[in-house]
Amino acid sequence: MGESILSGTVFAAGISVGPAILPGIFPLAPLLAFNPFTEPVGVIHYMIVGAVMFTAGVVCMALKRNALGVLMGIELVLNGANINFIAFSSPYLRGDGAPTLGLDGQLIALFVILLAAAEAAVALAITLNFYNNHATVDIDRADDLKG
Amino acid sequence: MTGTIRMDSIFTSVLLHLPAPTAPVVAAVDWHSVLFLLFAGLACGFAIAVVAAENVVRMALYLVFSLAATAGLFFLAGADFLGAMQLMIYVGGTLVLLVFGVMLTAQAPLVSIKPSASDRALAGIAGAALLAVLLAAAVSVDAWRKPGVGEIPSPTATPLGMALVGVRVDDPPAGAPLTGRSGYMLPFEIVSVHLLVVLVGAAYLARAKRRKTPRAIDVLASSDPPSQGAVLAAAVPAVRTTSGAGGKSALLGGGH
């Protein structure tokens, strides 16, 4: 993989950090020492993408005051979970000797997509109803049941 | 499954086996990894842009890009049918629904409702902490850190369809027992009834009602008796309407 000097300099300049020193100091060191353009992709890379999308969705749900923004955050969270399911089910990403979920992971992801579509339909109907009654989609105003 | 070329496997094969250039200098570049980095960067970047955007229409646009890039990640992992479903159901269906919601509810003062600065800082701290925990948990498992062996995935549409009607025709994953795998007939039926109920429920919730009291937005949009306007002004003080003098008088409590 790393024999070619030119490909190392062209594609991985500044990314290859000394792998011998870092692992003891910093738990993410294997990722820093990894040359992204020549190394095969594994499950962990998909999990990182899934974690970033999940976190973005959670922050979106917590932060947005627009009800539709909260719905978009839910979509992001479900997608982050789906990325993990797909990564675990993929034979291409499977490490040597590691187990996979097989087709079950893809089936679960399919059900997640279907339930997300159903959830979006009902949540949007509720939001439209709320908008008709309150003339706003600000969820801080949905406090009629506060008592 | 075997070495025979089938039409439905061509797409997967093309994505997973882009031919390496003949020049030895760039032969070491793994194009699967390059495409993964491209799609992963798009998915993560637009997901963060959804959080950072203030305008709800832009948020919907960024969400479209993020979900479409996720479909690219699915294709790269060998899940061809799931990638197509992601594009069709999410990008084609759910997002159209969301954009319709945005258009139906987006009046000028409502398009961007900004969170306060302290909320934003708190959400940033909580998000960073959550991300750190998730990444630490993901990195801590050795089996997930191994690079992929690059085993060629077979097309998944037929095995998925057969599994949904209760028959498993796919090969079990390496190391899994041959027997005891369940089909997905019962979840499929449950989801079917669920979707029907959701369809009926959503149509019921979103239908145009004939009501005794007028809707709040109709009251705001038309000139009304002062009493109703006063009630409404107490209920929704911050809403401005786009409808000229009638709306203003209703908002101010009606000073005719």
What does this structure look like?
The complex is a heterodimer of chains A (147) and B (256). Chain A has 147 residues and is mainly α. Chain A has 2 domains: 1-39, no CATH class; 43-146, Helix Hairpins. Helices cover 62% and strands 0% of the residues of chain A. The longest helix of chain A has 32 residues, at 103-134. Mean pLDDT of chain A is 78; it is low at 1-19. Chain B is mostly helical. Among the domains of chain B are: 1-19 and 28-110, Four Helix Bundle (Hemerythrin (Met), subunit A); 113-141; 216-251, no CATH class. The longest helix of chain B has 26 residues, at 80-105. The N and C termini of chain B lie far apart (79 Å). Classes of the chains: A mainly alpha (147), B mainly alpha (256). At the A-B interface, helix 1, helix 4, helix 5 and helix 6 of A face helix 2, helix 3, helix 4, helix 5 and helix 6 of B.
- Basic shape of chain B: extended
Task: Write down the Rg of chain B.
Answer: 26 Å
Task: Say which CATH homologous superfamily of the domain at 1-19 and 28-110 in chain B is assigned.
Answer: NADH-ubiquinone/plastoquinone oxidoreductase chain 6, subunit NuoJ
Give the proportion of residues in helices of chain B. Answer: 55-70%
How is the CATH topology of the largest domain in chain A named? Helix Hairpins
What is the string of helix and strand elements of chain A? HHHHHH
> Secondary-structure element sequence of chain B?
HHHHHHHHHHH
What is the oligomer described by this structure? Answer: heterodimer
Mean of pLDDT of chain B: 76
Largest sheet features of chain B: none
Q: How large is the share of residues in beta strands of chain A?
A: under 5%
How do the strands and helices of this protein lay out in sequence?
The complex is a heterodimer of chains A (147) and B (256).
Chain A: H1 5-11, H2 22-25, H3 29-32, H4 43-63, H5 67-89, H6 103-134
Helix pairs in contact in A: 4-5, 5-6
Chain B: H1 7-16, H2 31-52, H3 56-76, H4 80-105, H5 117-139, H6 142-145, H7 157-164, H8 185-205, H9 216-221, H10 226-235, H11 244-251
